[in-house]
Amino acid sequence: MIDIQNLNVVFGHGKQAFHAVRQVSLAVEAGQSFGLVGESGSGKTTVLRALAGLLDGVASVSGDMTVDGESLQQQRSKSFRQRVQMVFQDPYGSLHPRHTVDTILSEPARVHRLDRIEQRVVAALEEVGLDASFRFRYPHQISGGQRQRVSVARALITDPRIVLLDEPTSALDVSVQAEVLNLLMRLKREHGLTYVLVSHNLAVVAHVCETLSVMQNGAIVETMSVQQLREHNSTMPYTRQLLTASLGYDRGAIDAFEEFGS
Amino acid sequence: MSILALRSWLLAEVPGSKSQARCQRLFIGWLAFRRNPVAVIGLLIIVSLILIAALAPWITANDALELDLGQRLQPPGSEHWLGTDELGRDILDRIIWGSRITLYIVGLVSIIVVPIGLFIGIVAGYLGGWVDTVLMRLTDIFLAFPRLILAMALVAALGPGLENAVLAIALTTWSPFARIARAEALTIRNSDFILAARMQGVSTAGILTRHVAPLCMSSVIVRLTLDMAGIILTAAGLGFLGLGAQPPTPEWGAMISLGRQYLIDQWWVPTMPGIAILIVSLGFNLLGDGLRDVFDPKSGG
Amino acid sequence: MTDSPLLSVEDLHVTYHTPTGPVLAVKGVSFELGREKLGIVGESGSGKSQTGRAILGLTAPGGEVRASRLEFQGTDLLHADKRTMRRIRGGGISMIMQDPKYSLNPVMTVGKQIEEAFLVHSNDSKREARRRTLEMLRAVQIREPERVYRAYPHEVSGGMGQRIMIAMMMIPEPSIIIADEPTSALDVTVQLQVLAVLDDMISERGMGLIFISHDLNLIASFCDRILIMYGGQVMEECRADELSQAKHPYTRGLLNCLPRLDGSQDELAVLRRDPAWLDIREKIS
Ligand SMILES: Nc1ncnc2c1ncn2[C@@H]1O[C@H](COP(=O)(O)OP(=O)(O)OP(=O)(O)O)[C@@H](O)[C@H]1O
Ligand SMILES: Nc1ncnc2c1ncn2[C@@H]1O[C@H](COP(=O)(O)OP(=O)(O)OP(=O)(O)O)[C@@H](O)[C@H]1O
Ligand SMILES: [Mg+2]
Ligand SMILES: [Mg+2]
Predict the structure, then answer these.
(1) Is residue A201 part of a domain?
(2) Which CATH number goes with the domain that contains A170?
(3) Which of A46, A74, A148, C109 is most deeply packed, by most CB within 10 A?
């Protein structure tokens, strides 16, 4: 479904140039979920944005990307925009503050000239567990979890095959996180969606994905199955460190942490 | 619908339609605006100005051009509340008719300035790169000239007259709006909802008009109301210099200009239109301050 | 805990008078803070941030703060004048805000902003400020402090933004730090390393920390004591190491809906809220 070969992303030019993603290759089967974990600033979001074609004018991107049999050009095609959608990390920043939920949800349908926009909007809201009373509210009138549901609904309107999830729950509290994760799992089952999930929460990745890659300093250092992750069965010291860290705060263990990469 | 029902419709937790959601936003904005008494005074001044201009034919005795040389330079009194000028015209009547000209200038300038400034600003801010450089240098050129002098030069080239004065003012006023719109667009373009719109496949034109422009609009409107005083003063200045509206048009600046020779002995002739300019400028300023609070993004409106 | 608390809060209320009616954000919260790490957990909207902001007098306009006591080392924060408050903010108590990207000035470089925070509370030279800034950036585990020093807020990743905020708040060396979800955008390792930085500074200098988070595991392992908030009230208070034995159904619900690394991909339990939780407390008080 998704095939990325030797992706490189460089921000800026000349002396200021910053190589944010180095030689990243990954492949995701249709209907599978793929996790990207790694430390902050390791380039996870940048990989997603490069795939989504959101970096033109900001960074120079090189490498081969194929999605659903379509080899991606600089300019993404309209059908790509319909098939690939994204949910952003920050539910407060990803909805336009002056648009109602209705406007937010009908815009993609209108852009792609879909029919029955009204029904689609109502159906998408229902799909994410929001009743029709949310339709004409503004983002500031709904909670963070509800906003993230609206983001998910917006991504679903065009009936995509692939959804890119950039830390979809890290701004949400645990009770809402459980609701959103359940929602994502249900949609995946019912629509056969393919996910690429970026998260720094190993438990979330283990809950949603089958395979994951660990990123560090812009490069992928290890790719493993979630089963291996659960069994703490990793060869890379960096991954083992991530696993230790996900057990909670332990002042002693932290001193043993190594600096990787730099 | 009773007032109460209307109120509960406007404050309903759950808006039932797009128009209700919109009305609610306006109403909540109004509730916030109403809390600021100074801003309400500003609004009242502007509303009265509009009413006075609209009702001019009914509240004045004549069309403010009629001469009555027997009544020259009468002081304010029961017959002529604000006195008469050197040609025996009632000053109050002339101020009332002049309010139409003031509104005309203000309206025309806004219609020209806001779209130009907004367009140049958001295009420069959103697209960035060389487009930004070119547009902003252009803006800087206009910004660098003192407004009145540039307007004078333009009017001198185009010939005196109200329309040319408006055009000159508009050409010298748009640049700060472009600056403001650009600054807003610069912060907006990095936000996630713009990325989300691009992800959706919305075209650049669509993003500029539907996503960026509405967010820049509020600061532009605030700036416009705050700038109104300056616009009125420039118009009056041009009128005073004989470059704007031509006599016998009752334009306030021209009235001061013609009346200034009587300042010592018949002070009311130039002073009354001056007070009118002062009050209206103040009104716009107070209104602008109030709007700024309402539009503050943190207030959620 | 030492005998005299750094901060005492008694019956704190925060009410927002909005055009559409009053919003009770905090309803009668009381606690004391010594030289310790106090955690506040609770779901979104439970009033955690509002509690923190009220202490510093940073309640948004339109908000009214009432308390029978709000004292920082003997200073009454409710009735302090502007100058005292300015001195306390940053110098005495500082707050690491929840959303770094909105708290940082988008058109000023990161380095300049941290320097400014330092210079407000000291009269060292610009050069010293720069040195301290770079040192602080290094202390919060930023790899290339020189690059980040020159960067604008939108050029750094989410996690770096949060570390920059931490550096900015730590640099004036306050005696209480209120950290509002300071690490929720960080990956696990860096999160712990940043917390270790906080932890060390706190124990070295004998500071107090109020740590606001919705990450139960983290709070349980990091803090000494925990307040669990719901609907603007404290539901339960317990020692951090006893969180797993908490009794209140709300706390239990929060614990149950966490996905677990060793768990399966089944449906997660979702929290069922009971309005009675709030009523009971109201009747008691
Ligand atoms: N617009 C930009 N200009 C310059 N550098 C950038 C830009 N966006 C990101 N970077 C840099 O690229 C690197 C990777 O950033 P990215 O956002 O992909 O990290 P991430 O892995 O998603 O981290 P996090 O978990 O903190 O979100 C960072 O070092 C960041 O500073
Ligand atoms: N400026 C404001 N005007 C009106 N109500 C407000 C304002 N700020 C906050 N509130 C309300 O106060 C309540 C508590 O908010 P607070 O920010 O303290 O929640 P929180 O526990 O920090 O949640 P989160 O985990 O999402 O940060 C919420 O219901 C919120 O809607
Ligand atoms: Mg990221
Ligand atoms: Mg909060």
Answers:
(1) yes
(2) 3.40.50.300
(3) A148
Residue A37 belongs to domain spanning: 2-246
pLDDT, chain A, mean: 89
| A260 lies in some domain | no
The ipTM assigned to this model is 0.86
Ligand 3 centre to CA of C58 (Å) is: 29
Q: Tell which phi-psi region holds residue B73, choosing left (phi > 0), alpha (psi between -120 and 50) or beta.
A: left
Q: Ligand 2 atom 3: the closest Cα is on which residue?
A: C16
Is A61 inside any structural domain? yes
Least confident range from A245-249, B234-238, C278-282: namely C278-282
Q: How far is the CA of C183 from the centre of ligand 4 (A)?
A: 13
Sequence-separated (6 or more) residues with CB below 8 Å from residue A125: A101, A105, A131, A132, A134, A135, A153
Helices (H), chain A: 44-52, 78-83, 101-111, 117-127, 144-156, 174-191, 202-208, 226-230, 237-245, 251-255
The three-state secondary structure class of C97 is: coil
Integer Cα distance of C75 and C91 in angstroms: 14
CA separation for the pair A194, A188 (Å, rounded): 7
* Exposure of A194 in the CB half-sphere (CA atoms within 13 A): 15
Ligand 2 binding pocket (C-beta < 6 A) is A 144, 173; C 16, 18, 23, 25, 42, 44-50, 60, 98, 214
The count of domains in chain A is 1
> Is the separation of the CB atoms in A163 and A193 below 8 Å?
yes
Give a yes or no: residue A193 inside a domain. Answer: yes
Tokens linked to C36: 């310790």
| Angle CA C261–C262–C266, to nearest 5 | 90
Q: For residue range A182-212, list pLDDT tens digits in order.
A: 989 999 999 999 999 998 888 899 999 999 9
- Write down all domains in chain B, each with its CATH number in brackets: 52-300 (1.10.3720.10)
Contact B173, B231 (CB under 8 A): yes
Condensed to tens digits (0 to 9), the pLDDT of residues B144-173 reads: 888 788 888 888 888 888 888 888 889 888
Q: Which helix (H) or strand (E) holds B213?
A: helix B213-240
Question: What is the Cα Rg of chain A in Å?
Answer: 19
Instruction: Decide the pairing of beta strands A219-225 and A211-216.
Output: antiparallel
